[in-house]
Design brief:
By secondary structure, the chain is an alpha+beta fold. About 30% of the residues lie in helices and about 30% in strands. It is built from 5 helices and 9 strands. The strands form 2 sheets. It has a 5-stranded mixed beta sheet. A hairpin with a 4-residue loop joins β8 (about 190-195) and β9 (about 200-210). The protein starts with 20 loop residues before the first strand and ends with a helix.
C-alpha cells in the first residue's frame, strides 16, 4: 500500500493548475538564443548556439542537426551535486536526448542547412520538473537563435514547423495532479511526463507506476491533464516570441 501523503499544493494551486511559469528571453549575451525557464522554484537556463558543421555521420545528408546537452549545477539541489567531469550520468544523458528529440520534431532539418544547433540546458535550481522546463525553455531559445540566423541572411526563412513543450503529471495519494514539484514527485504513486505540440500532437509520454500500477482510464485522465498544461505552455511561448504572428 502506498504511503499516505497529503498537503496543500505549492502556490495554493488546484490539482489541475501549474506552478507560476515565466519564460524570460535574451538572458545571455553570447548565445544566439537564450531563455530562463521558471516553473515555480525550478529554474533552467537554456542557451542555443549554431555551428557551421554537422556530425560526421550527418555529412552529405544536405540537412542540419539539432541536439541538446543537460546538466544540473552543483548548488541546484539541497545537497550539492557533483559536476559531471569524469563521465555523464545516465539520467542526464536520457534527459538531453529527450530534449533533442523533442526539438527535432518541430524543425525542418533540410531547410536548416548543414549546421548544428546545440541547446544547452543548465538547471540553476531544481524543485521538480527540470526536464519539462528544459524542453519548454529550449524551444524559446531555439526559436530566437533560428530567427537571428534568418536575420543574418544565413537561411531564407525560419525552419520551425511548430512549437513543442513539456509538462509533468502524476497521482499523489490518489489525487491526479498537474506539474509536480519535488515533494509531490518524491511521493507520487504514478509519475508521468508529456511532451506535446501546439496542435495537440503527442511527441513522447514517459509514465511509471512508482508505487502502484495504473489502468487505462487513469492514463487517459493523466494525458488529458497534461494536454491542458501543454496548451497553456505553448500559449506562453507564443506570447514571448510572437511565433506565427
Amino acid at each position: 500500500m502506498a504511503e499516505s501523503y497529503a498537503r496543500e499544493r505549492s502556490f495554493g494551486r488546484a490539482e489541475d493548475e501549474m506552478r507560476p511559469v515565466t519564460l524570460t528571453r535574451d538572458v545571455m549575451k553570447n548565445a544566439l538564443g537564450s531563455c530562463l525557464a521558471e516553473f515555480g522554484d525550478t529554474r533552467v537556463l537554456c542557451c542555443a548556439t549554431i555551428e557551421d558543421s554537422v556530425p560526421g555521420w550527418r555529412k552529405n545528408a544536405h540537412a542540419g542537426w539539432v541536439t541538446a546537452e543537460y546538466a544540473m549545477l552543483p548548488a541546484s539541489t539541497s545537497v550539492r551535486s557533483k559536476r559531471e567531469q569524469n563521465g555523464r550520468k545516465g539520467r542526464s544523458m536520457e534527459i538531453e536526448r529527450l530534449i533533442g528529440r523533442s526539438l527535432r520534431t518541430v524543425v525542418n532539418l533540410r531547410a536548416l542547412g548543414e549546421v548544428t544547433v546545440t541547446v544547452d540546458c543548465d538547471v540553476i535550481q531544481a524543485d521538480g520538473g527540470t526536464r519539462t522546463a528544459s524542453v519548454t525553455g529550449a524551444w524559446v531559445a531555439l526559436h530566437d537563435a533560428l530567427k537571428r540566423w534568418v536575420e543574418a541572411g544565413r537561411i531564407p526563412r525560419l525552419p520551425l514547423t511548430g512549437q513543442v513543450a513539456a509538462i509533468s503529471m502524476g497521482m499523489v495519494d490518489g489525487r491526479l495532479l498537474l506539474d509536480l514539484d519535488y515533494p509531490e514527485d518524491s511521493h507520487a504513486e504514478v509519475d508521468m511526463n508529456l511532451v506535446g505540440t501546439a496542435d495537440g500532437g503527442i511527441v513522447e509520454v514517459q509514465g511509471t507506476g512508482e508505487r502502484v500500477p495504473f489502468d487505462r482510464a487513469r492514463l487517459d485522465a493523466l494525458l488529458d491533464l497534461g494536454q491542458k498544461g501543454i496548451a497553456r505552455l505553448v500559449e506562453l511561448q507564443r506570447e514571448v516570441t510572437c511565433f506565427g504572428a
